[in-house]
User: What shape does this take?
Amino acid sequence: MNQSREQLLHRLDDQAEPWDIIVIGGGATGLGAAVDAAARGYRTLLLERGDFAGGTSSRSTKLIHGGVRYLQQGNLALVHEALRERYILLKNAPHLVHDVPFAIPLYRWWERPFYGIGMALYDLLSGAHGLKHSRHLSRKETIDLIPTVRRQNLRGGITYHDGQFDDARLAVCLALTVADLGGTTLNYMNVTSLAAASGRMTTIEATDSESGRKYKLTGRAVINATGVWCDQLRRMDEPSCSPLISLSQGAHLVLDRSFLPSICAVMVPHTDDGRVFFAIPWYDRVIVGTTDTPHSEITPEPVPLPDEIDFLLAHAGRCLERRPTRADVLSCFAGLRPLAGGNKGQNTSQLSREYLLSVSASGLVTITGGKWTTYRSMAVAAVDAAALQAGLESRRSDTDSLRLHGWEPPSPQAGSWGVYGSDRKLLEQLADEHPDWREQLHPRLPYKVGEVIWAVRFEWARSVEDLLARRTRALFLDVGASREIAPRVADLMASELGQDQAWQFRQLEHFEEVAAHYLPPLMSGEKDRP
Assistant: This one.
Protein backbone atom coordinates (compact mmCIF):
# COMPACT_ATOMS: atom_id res chain seq x y z
CA MET A 1 0.00 0.00 0.00
CA ASN A 2 1.02 3.65 -0.39
CA GLN A 3 2.94 5.48 2.31
CA SER A 4 1.28 7.66 4.94
CA ARG A 5 1.52 11.44 4.80
CA GLU A 6 4.05 11.37 7.66
CA GLN A 7 6.27 8.97 5.71
CA LEU A 8 6.02 11.19 2.64
CA LEU A 9 7.07 14.21 4.70
CA HIS A 10 10.20 12.31 5.75
CA ARG A 11 11.12 12.09 2.08
CA LEU A 12 11.53 15.87 2.04
CA ASP A 13 14.25 15.54 4.68
CA ASP A 14 15.86 12.49 3.10
CA GLN A 15 16.11 13.88 -0.45
CA ALA A 16 19.86 14.49 -0.89
CA GLU A 17 19.59 15.39 -4.58
CA PRO A 18 17.36 18.15 -6.00
CA TRP A 19 14.01 17.04 -7.31
CA ASP A 20 13.94 16.75 -11.09
CA ILE A 21 10.45 18.24 -11.30
CA ILE A 22 8.38 19.95 -8.63
CA VAL A 23 4.72 20.38 -9.52
CA ILE A 24 2.72 23.01 -7.63
CA GLY A 25 -1.02 22.38 -7.67
CA GLY A 26 -2.98 19.20 -6.94
CA GLY A 27 -5.89 19.57 -9.33
CA ALA A 28 -6.41 17.69 -12.59
CA THR A 29 -3.52 19.30 -14.48
CA GLY A 30 -1.00 19.18 -11.64
CA LEU A 31 -1.75 15.58 -10.77
CA GLY A 32 -1.58 14.67 -14.44
CA ALA A 33 1.81 16.37 -14.75
CA ALA A 34 3.10 14.51 -11.68
CA VAL A 35 1.92 11.19 -13.13
CA ASP A 36 3.60 11.95 -16.44
CA ALA A 37 6.87 13.08 -14.83
CA ALA A 38 7.03 10.09 -12.48
CA ALA A 39 6.17 7.70 -15.31
CA ARG A 40 9.18 9.03 -17.25
CA GLY A 41 11.41 8.24 -14.27
CA TYR A 42 12.00 11.82 -13.12
CA ARG A 43 12.26 12.43 -9.37
CA THR A 44 8.87 14.04 -8.88
CA LEU A 45 7.31 16.04 -6.06
CA LEU A 46 3.81 17.53 -6.06
CA LEU A 47 2.71 20.11 -3.49
CA GLU A 48 -0.93 21.13 -3.00
CA ARG A 49 -1.83 23.86 -0.49
CA GLY A 50 -5.25 22.33 0.26
CA ASP A 51 -6.64 18.92 -0.58
CA PHE A 52 -6.28 17.17 -3.90
CA ALA A 53 -8.98 18.49 -6.28
CA GLY A 54 -10.14 20.82 -3.53
CA GLY A 55 -10.90 23.55 -6.06
CA THR A 56 -12.36 23.51 -9.56
CA SER A 57 -11.28 19.93 -10.29
CA SER A 58 -13.95 18.48 -7.98
CA ARG A 59 -16.72 20.79 -9.26
CA SER A 60 -17.01 19.85 -12.94
CA THR A 61 -20.05 18.61 -14.86
CA LYS A 62 -18.62 15.06 -14.45
CA LEU A 63 -18.19 14.59 -18.20
CA ILE A 64 -15.26 13.28 -20.24
CA HIS A 65 -16.35 14.58 -23.61
CA GLY A 66 -15.34 16.12 -26.89
CA GLY A 67 -17.53 19.15 -26.30
CA VAL A 68 -20.59 19.71 -28.46
CA ARG A 69 -20.38 23.46 -27.83
CA TYR A 70 -16.82 23.60 -29.18
CA LEU A 71 -18.15 21.82 -32.26
CA GLN A 72 -20.71 24.63 -32.68
CA GLN A 73 -17.89 27.16 -32.37
CA GLY A 74 -15.98 25.42 -35.16
CA ASN A 75 -13.07 24.38 -32.91
CA LEU A 76 -12.70 21.00 -34.57
CA ALA A 77 -9.09 20.51 -33.45
CA LEU A 78 -10.06 20.80 -29.76
CA VAL A 79 -13.00 18.42 -30.24
CA HIS A 80 -10.81 15.88 -32.05
CA GLU A 81 -8.13 16.02 -29.31
CA ALA A 82 -10.72 15.70 -26.55
CA LEU A 83 -12.37 12.71 -28.21
CA ARG A 84 -8.99 10.99 -28.46
CA GLU A 85 -8.32 11.71 -24.77
CA ARG A 86 -11.80 10.42 -23.91
CA TYR A 87 -10.88 7.10 -25.53
CA ILE A 88 -7.58 6.95 -23.61
CA LEU A 89 -9.30 7.57 -20.25
CA LEU A 90 -11.98 4.97 -20.94
CA LYS A 91 -9.16 2.52 -21.64
CA ASN A 92 -6.82 3.49 -18.79
CA ALA A 93 -9.36 4.06 -15.98
CA PRO A 94 -12.42 1.90 -16.77
CA HIS A 95 -13.28 1.70 -13.06
CA LEU A 96 -13.86 5.48 -13.01
CA VAL A 97 -14.81 6.48 -16.56
CA HIS A 98 -17.69 4.99 -18.54
CA ASP A 99 -19.86 5.88 -21.48
CA VAL A 100 -23.34 7.30 -20.99
CA PRO A 101 -26.14 7.82 -23.55
CA PHE A 102 -27.40 11.36 -24.18
CA ALA A 103 -30.59 12.48 -25.86
CA ILE A 104 -31.33 15.83 -27.52
CA PRO A 105 -35.10 16.45 -27.43
CA LEU A 106 -36.34 18.13 -30.61
CA TYR A 107 -39.20 20.64 -30.57
CA ARG A 108 -38.83 22.53 -33.87
CA TRP A 109 -38.79 21.15 -37.41
CA TRP A 110 -35.34 22.49 -38.26
CA GLU A 111 -33.62 20.98 -35.21
CA ARG A 112 -33.54 17.44 -36.59
CA PRO A 113 -31.47 18.19 -39.72
CA PHE A 114 -29.38 20.86 -37.95
CA TYR A 115 -28.39 18.83 -34.90
CA GLY A 116 -28.38 15.60 -36.86
CA ILE A 117 -25.60 16.93 -39.10
CA GLY A 118 -23.71 18.20 -36.04
CA MET A 119 -23.81 14.85 -34.26
CA ALA A 120 -22.80 13.05 -37.45
CA LEU A 121 -19.73 15.30 -37.53
CA TYR A 122 -19.10 14.49 -33.85
CA ASP A 123 -19.12 10.78 -34.78
CA LEU A 124 -16.78 11.45 -37.69
CA LEU A 125 -14.29 13.34 -35.52
CA SER A 126 -14.29 10.44 -33.05
CA GLY A 127 -12.98 8.14 -35.77
CA ALA A 128 -11.51 4.94 -34.34
CA HIS A 129 -11.92 6.39 -30.84
CA GLY A 130 -15.69 6.65 -31.04
CA LEU A 131 -18.36 5.10 -28.84
CA LYS A 132 -21.77 4.22 -30.24
CA HIS A 133 -22.93 6.24 -33.25
CA SER A 134 -25.63 8.85 -32.90
CA ARG A 135 -29.09 8.00 -34.23
CA HIS A 136 -32.46 9.65 -34.72
CA LEU A 137 -35.39 8.90 -32.42
CA SER A 138 -39.11 9.06 -33.01
CA ARG A 139 -41.31 10.89 -30.53
CA LYS A 140 -42.28 7.59 -28.86
CA GLU A 141 -38.66 6.42 -28.68
CA THR A 142 -37.66 9.69 -27.06
CA ILE A 143 -40.38 9.38 -24.40
CA ASP A 144 -39.49 5.72 -23.79
CA LEU A 145 -35.86 6.71 -23.29
CA ILE A 146 -36.63 9.79 -21.13
CA PRO A 147 -40.03 9.26 -19.47
CA THR A 148 -39.97 12.70 -17.80
CA VAL A 149 -39.08 14.70 -20.93
CA ARG A 150 -41.36 17.68 -21.63
CA ARG A 151 -43.87 16.34 -24.15
CA GLN A 152 -45.57 19.50 -25.39
CA ASN A 153 -44.55 20.04 -29.06
CA LEU A 154 -41.99 17.20 -28.80
CA ARG A 155 -41.14 15.94 -32.31
CA GLY A 156 -38.54 13.32 -31.45
CA GLY A 157 -34.88 13.30 -30.54
CA ILE A 158 -31.30 12.42 -31.36
CA THR A 159 -29.20 10.16 -29.18
CA TYR A 160 -25.41 9.95 -28.91
CA HIS A 161 -22.81 8.69 -26.41
CA ASP A 162 -20.14 10.45 -24.36
CA GLY A 163 -18.05 9.78 -21.25
CA GLN A 164 -18.90 10.27 -17.59
CA PHE A 165 -16.72 10.08 -14.46
CA ASP A 166 -16.27 11.07 -10.84
CA ASP A 167 -13.83 13.99 -10.94
CA ALA A 168 -12.60 13.94 -7.31
CA ARG A 169 -12.22 10.15 -7.32
CA LEU A 170 -10.15 10.37 -10.50
CA ALA A 171 -7.97 13.02 -8.84
CA VAL A 172 -7.34 10.70 -5.87
CA CYS A 173 -6.63 7.90 -8.35
CA LEU A 174 -3.98 10.08 -10.05
CA ALA A 175 -2.35 10.90 -6.71
CA LEU A 176 -2.20 7.19 -5.93
CA THR A 177 -0.76 6.52 -9.39
CA VAL A 178 2.06 9.00 -8.69
CA ALA A 179 2.82 7.04 -5.52
CA ASP A 180 2.77 3.76 -7.46
CA LEU A 181 5.38 5.25 -9.80
CA GLY A 182 7.67 6.33 -6.97
CA GLY A 183 6.70 10.01 -6.91
CA THR A 184 5.74 12.06 -3.85
CA THR A 185 2.45 13.92 -3.50
CA LEU A 186 1.62 16.02 -0.45
CA ASN A 187 -1.61 17.84 0.28
CA TYR A 188 -1.80 20.75 2.74
CA MET A 189 1.64 22.03 1.73
CA ASN A 190 1.44 25.74 0.98
CA VAL A 191 4.15 27.19 -1.29
CA THR A 192 5.06 30.63 0.07
CA SER A 193 7.95 31.63 -2.19
CA LEU A 194 10.09 30.51 -5.09
CA ALA A 195 13.35 31.88 -6.41
CA ALA A 196 15.55 30.92 -9.35
CA ALA A 197 19.08 29.93 -8.37
CA SER A 198 22.20 29.37 -10.40
CA GLY A 199 22.55 26.34 -12.64
CA ARG A 200 18.89 25.99 -13.65
CA MET A 201 17.72 25.42 -10.09
CA THR A 202 14.68 26.84 -8.33
CA THR A 203 14.34 27.01 -4.56
CA ILE A 204 10.87 26.72 -3.10
CA GLU A 205 9.74 27.46 0.41
CA ALA A 206 6.65 25.60 1.57
CA THR A 207 4.81 25.31 4.88
CA ASP A 208 3.04 22.23 6.18
CA SER A 209 -0.39 23.61 7.08
CA GLU A 210 -0.88 20.99 9.79
CA SER A 211 2.37 21.32 11.74
CA GLY A 212 3.47 24.79 10.66
CA ARG A 213 6.89 23.40 9.78
CA LYS A 214 8.67 25.18 6.92
CA TYR A 215 10.58 23.36 4.19
CA LYS A 216 13.14 24.62 1.72
CA LEU A 217 13.13 22.48 -1.43
CA THR A 218 15.15 22.58 -4.61
CA GLY A 219 14.05 21.46 -8.05
CA ARG A 220 15.63 21.45 -11.48
CA ALA A 221 12.25 22.38 -12.96
CA VAL A 222 9.03 23.76 -11.49
CA ILE A 223 5.58 23.43 -13.04
CA ASN A 224 2.89 25.92 -12.01
CA ALA A 225 -0.40 24.03 -12.32
CA THR A 226 -2.40 26.02 -9.78
CA GLY A 227 -5.45 26.70 -11.94
CA VAL A 228 -7.20 29.94 -11.07
CA TRP A 229 -4.28 30.85 -8.76
CA CYS A 230 -1.66 30.55 -11.52
CA ASP A 231 -1.10 34.30 -11.84
CA GLN A 232 -0.55 34.63 -8.09
CA LEU A 233 2.23 32.05 -8.25
CA ARG A 234 3.68 33.65 -11.36
CA ARG A 235 4.00 36.92 -9.45
CA MET A 236 6.27 35.14 -6.94
CA ASP A 237 8.57 34.57 -9.90
CA GLU A 238 7.94 37.80 -11.85
CA PRO A 239 6.18 40.46 -9.71
CA SER A 240 5.27 42.60 -12.73
CA CYS A 241 3.99 39.84 -15.02
CA SER A 242 0.71 40.36 -16.90
CA PRO A 243 -2.26 38.08 -16.14
CA LEU A 244 -2.65 34.99 -18.30
CA ILE A 245 -6.23 34.07 -17.46
CA SER A 246 -9.79 35.27 -17.06
CA LEU A 247 -12.20 33.67 -14.61
CA SER A 248 -15.54 32.10 -15.35
CA GLN A 249 -17.88 30.48 -12.84
CA GLY A 250 -19.81 27.33 -13.64
CA ALA A 251 -22.68 26.38 -11.32
CA HIS A 252 -24.55 23.08 -10.97
CA LEU A 253 -27.61 21.83 -9.10
CA VAL A 254 -28.20 18.30 -7.81
CA LEU A 255 -31.76 16.94 -7.85
CA ASP A 256 -33.48 13.73 -6.86
CA ARG A 257 -33.38 10.97 -9.47
CA SER A 258 -37.18 11.15 -9.86
CA PHE A 259 -36.68 14.20 -12.10
CA LEU A 260 -34.84 12.00 -14.62
CA PRO A 261 -35.41 8.29 -13.85
CA SER A 262 -33.36 7.06 -16.79
CA ILE A 263 -29.86 5.88 -17.66
CA CYS A 264 -29.94 8.52 -20.39
CA ALA A 265 -28.83 12.12 -19.91
CA VAL A 266 -30.50 15.12 -21.57
CA MET A 267 -28.56 17.71 -23.56
CA VAL A 268 -29.96 21.00 -24.79
CA PRO A 269 -27.54 22.39 -27.41
CA HIS A 270 -28.33 26.07 -26.92
CA THR A 271 -29.37 28.05 -23.84
CA ASP A 272 -30.08 31.73 -23.26
CA ASP A 273 -26.38 32.42 -22.58
CA GLY A 274 -25.11 30.37 -25.51
CA ARG A 275 -23.99 27.37 -23.47
CA VAL A 276 -24.97 23.74 -23.66
CA PHE A 277 -27.35 22.60 -20.90
CA PHE A 278 -27.15 19.13 -19.32
CA ALA A 279 -29.33 17.05 -17.01
CA ILE A 280 -27.24 14.00 -16.17
CA PRO A 281 -27.87 10.91 -14.02
CA TRP A 282 -25.01 10.56 -11.49
CA TYR A 283 -24.85 8.31 -8.41
CA ASP A 284 -28.64 7.96 -8.30
CA ARG A 285 -29.05 11.73 -8.49
CA VAL A 286 -29.40 14.20 -11.37
CA ILE A 287 -26.84 16.93 -12.01
CA VAL A 288 -28.15 20.01 -13.80
CA GLY A 289 -25.62 22.40 -15.33
CA THR A 290 -23.92 24.54 -16.22
CA THR A 291 -23.48 28.31 -16.32
CA ASP A 292 -20.71 30.55 -17.65
CA THR A 293 -20.55 33.68 -15.52
CA PRO A 294 -17.58 36.10 -15.73
CA HIS A 295 -15.89 36.38 -12.35
CA SER A 296 -13.34 38.86 -11.07
CA GLU A 297 -12.44 37.51 -7.63
CA ILE A 298 -10.89 34.19 -6.60
CA THR A 299 -12.67 32.65 -3.62
CA PRO A 300 -11.76 29.31 -1.98
CA GLU A 301 -15.43 28.34 -1.83
CA PRO A 302 -17.32 29.75 -4.84
CA VAL A 303 -21.08 29.91 -4.39
CA PRO A 304 -23.74 29.64 -7.10
CA LEU A 305 -25.27 33.06 -7.63
CA PRO A 306 -29.04 33.53 -7.30
CA ASP A 307 -29.31 34.29 -11.03
CA GLU A 308 -27.39 31.09 -11.86
CA ILE A 309 -29.72 29.00 -9.70
CA ASP A 310 -32.78 30.55 -11.32
CA PHE A 311 -31.26 30.04 -14.78
CA LEU A 312 -30.63 26.34 -14.17
CA LEU A 313 -34.05 25.71 -12.62
CA ALA A 314 -35.75 27.50 -15.53
CA HIS A 315 -33.87 25.50 -18.18
CA ALA A 316 -34.53 22.24 -16.35
CA GLY A 317 -38.22 23.14 -16.42
CA ARG A 318 -38.05 23.67 -20.19
CA CYS A 319 -36.91 20.14 -20.95
CA LEU A 320 -38.52 18.16 -18.11
CA GLU A 321 -42.22 17.67 -17.41
CA ARG A 322 -41.79 18.48 -13.73
CA ARG A 323 -40.20 21.86 -13.08
CA PRO A 324 -37.85 21.80 -10.05
CA THR A 325 -37.81 24.54 -7.43
CA ARG A 326 -35.15 25.58 -4.94
CA ALA A 327 -36.81 23.31 -2.39
CA ASP A 328 -35.97 20.34 -4.63
CA VAL A 329 -32.24 21.09 -4.69
CA LEU A 330 -30.31 18.50 -2.65
CA SER A 331 -27.00 20.25 -3.22
CA CYS A 332 -25.52 22.96 -5.42
CA PHE A 333 -21.92 23.77 -6.22
CA ALA A 334 -19.82 26.12 -8.29
CA GLY A 335 -16.30 26.10 -9.66
CA LEU A 336 -14.06 28.76 -11.17
CA ARG A 337 -12.58 28.06 -14.58
CA PRO A 338 -9.18 29.51 -15.56
CA LEU A 339 -9.72 30.57 -19.17
CA ALA A 340 -6.79 31.56 -21.33
CA GLY A 341 -6.86 35.27 -22.22
CA GLY A 342 -9.89 37.52 -22.29
CA ASN A 343 -10.65 41.01 -21.07
CA LYS A 344 -12.61 42.25 -18.10
CA GLY A 345 -16.33 42.04 -18.79
CA GLN A 346 -15.92 39.82 -21.85
CA ASN A 347 -18.45 37.04 -22.41
CA THR A 348 -16.49 34.07 -21.05
CA SER A 349 -18.64 31.53 -22.92
CA GLN A 350 -16.81 32.65 -26.07
CA LEU A 351 -13.32 32.15 -24.62
CA SER A 352 -11.30 29.12 -25.67
CA ARG A 353 -11.15 25.98 -23.51
CA GLU A 354 -7.74 25.23 -24.98
CA TYR A 355 -4.82 25.33 -22.61
CA LEU A 356 -2.01 27.86 -22.41
CA LEU A 357 1.64 26.97 -21.77
CA SER A 358 4.10 29.67 -20.70
CA VAL A 359 7.78 29.55 -19.64
CA SER A 360 9.17 32.53 -17.73
CA ALA A 361 12.67 33.97 -18.07
CA SER A 362 13.71 32.07 -14.93
CA GLY A 363 12.27 28.81 -16.27
CA LEU A 364 8.97 28.55 -14.38
CA VAL A 365 6.60 26.49 -16.53
CA THR A 366 2.96 27.55 -16.22
CA ILE A 367 0.20 25.36 -17.66
CA THR A 368 -3.39 26.62 -17.37
CA GLY A 369 -6.79 26.56 -19.06
CA GLY A 370 -8.07 23.39 -20.66
CA LYS A 371 -10.53 20.98 -19.09
CA TRP A 372 -10.59 17.61 -17.31
CA THR A 373 -10.89 15.65 -20.55
CA THR A 374 -7.58 16.93 -21.87
CA TYR A 375 -5.67 16.87 -18.57
CA ARG A 376 -3.28 14.15 -19.83
CA SER A 377 -2.25 15.90 -23.04
CA MET A 378 -1.76 19.12 -21.06
CA ALA A 379 0.46 17.21 -18.66
CA VAL A 380 2.60 15.84 -21.48
CA ALA A 381 3.14 19.35 -22.85
CA ALA A 382 4.04 20.72 -19.41
CA VAL A 383 6.56 17.98 -18.62
CA ASP A 384 8.09 18.24 -22.10
CA ALA A 385 8.66 21.98 -21.52
CA ALA A 386 9.97 21.47 -17.97
CA ALA A 387 12.43 18.78 -19.01
CA LEU A 388 13.69 20.88 -21.90
CA GLN A 389 14.31 24.07 -19.91
CA ALA A 390 15.97 22.11 -17.05
CA GLY A 391 18.21 20.12 -19.35
CA LEU A 392 16.85 16.79 -18.11
CA GLU A 393 17.42 13.64 -20.11
CA SER A 394 14.77 13.49 -22.82
CA ARG A 395 12.28 10.69 -22.14
CA ARG A 396 9.12 9.98 -24.09
CA SER A 397 5.74 10.05 -22.34
CA ASP A 398 3.86 6.76 -22.32
CA THR A 399 0.81 7.82 -20.29
CA ASP A 400 -1.46 7.19 -23.26
CA SER A 401 -1.13 3.49 -22.42
CA LEU A 402 -0.57 3.75 -18.64
CA ARG A 403 -3.19 1.97 -16.57
CA LEU A 404 -4.11 4.20 -13.64
CA HIS A 405 -4.17 3.03 -10.02
CA GLY A 406 -6.87 0.46 -9.34
CA TRP A 407 -7.35 -0.40 -13.03
CA GLU A 408 -10.05 -3.00 -13.32
CA PRO A 409 -12.77 -3.67 -15.90
CA PRO A 410 -16.17 -2.58 -14.55
CA SER A 411 -18.26 -5.31 -12.96
CA PRO A 412 -21.94 -5.24 -11.92
CA GLN A 413 -20.94 -7.17 -8.79
CA ALA A 414 -18.68 -4.30 -7.65
CA GLY A 415 -21.63 -2.12 -6.64
CA SER A 416 -20.87 1.28 -5.12
CA TRP A 417 -17.31 0.17 -4.36
CA GLY A 418 -16.56 -0.18 -8.06
CA VAL A 419 -14.89 3.28 -8.02
CA TYR A 420 -12.05 1.74 -6.01
CA GLY A 421 -11.21 -0.63 -8.85
CA SER A 422 -8.86 -3.41 -7.82
CA ASP A 423 -8.52 -1.78 -4.37
CA ARG A 424 -12.07 -2.96 -3.74
CA LYS A 425 -10.76 -6.37 -2.62
CA LEU A 426 -8.49 -4.71 -0.05
CA LEU A 427 -11.36 -2.50 1.09
CA GLU A 428 -13.48 -5.63 1.56
CA GLN A 429 -10.73 -7.13 3.74
CA LEU A 430 -10.50 -3.92 5.77
CA ALA A 431 -14.27 -3.85 6.30
CA ASP A 432 -14.09 -7.38 7.75
CA GLU A 433 -11.78 -6.17 10.56
CA HIS A 434 -14.61 -4.58 12.54
CA PRO A 435 -18.32 -5.52 12.72
CA ASP A 436 -19.47 -1.90 12.29
CA TRP A 437 -17.38 -1.07 9.24
CA ARG A 438 -19.93 -2.44 6.79
CA GLU A 439 -22.68 -0.24 8.17
CA GLN A 440 -24.14 2.39 5.87
CA LEU A 441 -23.35 5.90 7.10
CA HIS A 442 -26.78 7.24 6.11
CA PRO A 443 -29.84 5.64 4.43
CA ARG A 444 -29.85 8.33 1.70
CA LEU A 445 -26.16 7.82 0.85
CA PRO A 446 -24.33 4.79 -0.57
CA TYR A 447 -21.25 5.08 1.67
CA LYS A 448 -20.15 2.77 4.50
CA VAL A 449 -18.14 3.26 7.65
CA GLY A 450 -15.18 1.29 6.29
CA GLU A 451 -14.71 3.87 3.54
CA VAL A 452 -13.90 6.51 6.18
CA ILE A 453 -11.16 4.31 7.63
CA TRP A 454 -9.85 3.51 4.16
CA ALA A 455 -9.70 7.16 3.08
CA VAL A 456 -7.70 8.15 6.16
CA ARG A 457 -5.28 5.23 6.03
CA PHE A 458 -4.68 4.96 2.31
CA GLU A 459 -5.94 8.11 0.52
CA TRP A 460 -4.51 10.93 2.65
CA ALA A 461 -7.87 12.31 3.83
CA ARG A 462 -7.11 14.81 6.61
CA SER A 463 -10.43 16.52 7.35
CA VAL A 464 -14.15 15.89 7.50
CA GLU A 465 -14.51 18.02 4.38
CA ASP A 466 -11.92 15.88 2.54
CA LEU A 467 -13.95 12.82 3.43
CA LEU A 468 -17.47 14.05 2.72
CA ALA A 469 -16.71 16.25 -0.30
CA ARG A 470 -13.99 14.34 -2.19
CA ARG A 471 -13.15 10.81 -0.90
CA THR A 472 -16.88 10.24 -0.92
CA ARG A 473 -19.19 12.64 -2.76
CA ALA A 474 -21.71 12.89 0.06
CA LEU A 475 -21.72 16.71 0.23
CA PHE A 476 -22.40 16.91 -3.51
CA LEU A 477 -25.22 14.35 -3.35
CA ASP A 478 -27.15 15.39 -0.23
CA VAL A 479 -26.15 18.27 2.02
CA GLY A 480 -28.68 17.39 4.71
CA ALA A 481 -27.54 13.78 5.00
CA SER A 482 -23.89 14.90 5.04
CA ARG A 483 -24.53 17.24 7.95
CA GLU A 484 -26.21 14.42 9.86
CA ILE A 485 -23.27 12.03 9.52
CA ALA A 486 -20.50 14.60 9.98
CA PRO A 487 -20.18 14.02 13.78
CA ARG A 488 -19.72 10.28 13.32
CA VAL A 489 -17.21 10.85 10.52
CA ALA A 490 -15.28 13.28 12.73
CA ASP A 491 -15.18 10.73 15.53
CA LEU A 492 -13.96 7.95 13.23
CA MET A 493 -11.30 10.18 11.69
CA ALA A 494 -10.11 11.46 15.06
CA SER A 495 -9.56 7.89 16.22
CA GLU A 496 -7.52 7.10 13.11
CA LEU A 497 -5.51 10.34 13.17
CA GLY A 498 -4.93 10.43 16.92
CA GLN A 499 -6.86 13.67 17.35
CA ASP A 500 -8.89 14.90 20.35
CA GLN A 501 -12.35 16.33 20.96
CA ALA A 502 -11.15 19.87 20.28
CA TRP A 503 -10.03 18.78 16.80
CA GLN A 504 -13.45 17.22 16.18
CA PHE A 505 -15.18 20.43 17.24
CA ARG A 506 -13.03 22.52 14.89
CA GLN A 507 -13.65 20.08 12.05
CA LEU A 508 -17.42 20.14 12.50
CA GLU A 509 -17.46 23.91 12.77
CA HIS A 510 -15.49 24.21 9.51
CA PHE A 511 -17.63 21.62 7.74
CA GLU A 512 -20.82 23.44 8.72
CA GLU A 513 -19.41 26.65 7.24
CA VAL A 514 -18.60 24.86 3.98
CA ALA A 515 -21.89 22.93 3.81
CA ALA A 516 -23.85 26.17 4.19
CA HIS A 517 -22.64 27.15 0.70
CA TYR A 518 -24.11 24.00 -0.88
CA LEU A 519 -27.81 24.79 -0.46
CA PRO A 520 -29.60 27.75 -2.05
CA PRO A 521 -31.86 29.82 0.21
CA LEU A 522 -35.55 29.14 -0.30
CA MET A 523 -37.73 31.76 -1.94
CA SER A 524 -40.74 33.20 -0.17
CA GLY A 525 -43.63 30.75 -0.29
CA GLU A 526 -41.55 27.67 -1.18
CA LYS A 527 -42.08 24.54 0.92
CA ASP A 528 -39.35 23.33 3.24
CA ARG A 529 -36.89 20.73 2.02
CA PRO A 530 -37.63 17.15 2.98
Q: What stands out?
A: The CA atoms of residues 311 and 355 lie 28 Å apart.
